[in-house]
Amino acid sequence: MVSVILASDLHGKSLPQDIDYSKLRGAYFVGLGDYLPDSLLDDIRYNVVSKEKLNKIRKTIRSKEEAQMKKNKAVNELRKIDKEAFSNLTEKNIGDIIESYEALKEQTDELKKKGIHVRVIHGNRDFPEYLKKVFGEQYKKGEMEKIGEKRAFYYPNACKFGYEPVRPGEVSIEERKKMIKQCYKRIPDIFFSHTPPAGTPISTYYGKEVGDEVLGEFLRKINTKRGQKKIQICSGHVHQAREENILMEIHILSVYPFCLTKL
Ligand SMILES: [Zn+2]
User: Fold this and answer.
1) What is the DSSP code (8-state) at residue 137?
2) Separation of 126 CA from ligand 1 center, angstroms?
3) Distance (Å, whole) CA 204 – CA 86
4) pLDDT by residue for the chain (263 residues), tens digit each?
5) How far is CA 94 from CA 89, 90, 101, 112, 178, in A?
6) What are the two backbone dihedrals, phi and then psi, of residue 245, each rounded to the nearest 5 degrees?
7) Which one of 12, 25, 107, 111 is most buried, by most CB atoms within 10 A?
8) pTM value?
């Protein structure tokens, strides 16, 4: 058994300090994405939209009374803003992003000093290019690795269900399909993913499907093909889904913001 420290959707928060990491020598720390603070992402949006306008759009999206059509329009409006803002970063934005990743790197370097292996994947609110720049080889994308006796697959599948990617962290259906292709030949025991698989009890948000359709399809296919193969998924993204689910032969561990488990 190998201990695994999982963290997801930290949004600028620090790693918990109440854990005796020195007892976890040989463990793996796996960051499942979405590390940047919300305030930083908003700063980027303010390059193209006013604070008032952004608040108004958000209020519509979160409103319980608003008609669905109006809410969908607001989601599209926000994505249009994001597309423009996130592809036109200022020097200051880039500096802030890198600084934020470096703060996290400093914390994980402390874990490394204690003999803990560090791995990170990106989420939809991340900038893979800068995450990779700061974390180097510790940043993983579409790679298989043995952890103890288990075969783990790093699958940064950040996406918004049914939408084309607009943010740098979002991965298109085509790219996800390409990444997961190798898993049909060598089925992993564990998936470290940002978004949970679609069609599962933890992949809905206020009744709407938000999961990864490519991972969902993969699990359905191999489940009928292999029957008894036990698969474990460790994912974040859906904050309210802080629970474990056993679904057919799939064990889904939803992480927010931190969890200690054994594989
Ligand atoms: Zn996310």
Assistant:
1) G
2) 9
3) 26
4) 899 999 999 999 999 888 889 999 999 999 999 999 999 999 999 999 999 999 999 999 888 888 889 999 999 999 999 999 999 999 999 999 999 999 999 999 999 999 999 999 999 999 999 999 999 999 999 999 999 989 999 999 999 888 889 999 999 999 999 999 999 988 898 999 999 999 877 777 767 788 999 999 998 888 766 555 678 888 988 776 555 555 545 676 667 677 778 87
5) 6, 6, 11, 26, 29
6) -130, 135
7) 111
8) 0.91
What's the gap in Å between 237 CA and the centre of ligand 1? Answer: 4
CATH of domain 3-47+88-262: 3.60.21.10
CA-derived radius of gyration, the chain: 18
**35 C-alpha to center of ligand 1: Å?**
9
Q: How far is the CA of 32 from the centre of ligand 1 (A)?
A: 9
Distance from Cα 95 to the centre of ligand 1, integer Å: 22
Q: What is the distance in A from the centroid of ligand 1 to the CA of 53?
A: 23
What's the gap in Å between 11 CA and the centre of ligand 1? Answer: 10
For ligand 1, the distance from its centroid to the CA atom of residue 227, given in whole angstroms, is: 30
The Cα 254–Cα 202 span in angstroms is: 8
Residues near ion ligand 1 (Cβ under 5 Å): 34, 123-124, 237
Cα 185 to middle of ligand 1, angstroms: 28
Distance 240 CA to ligand 1 centre (A): 12
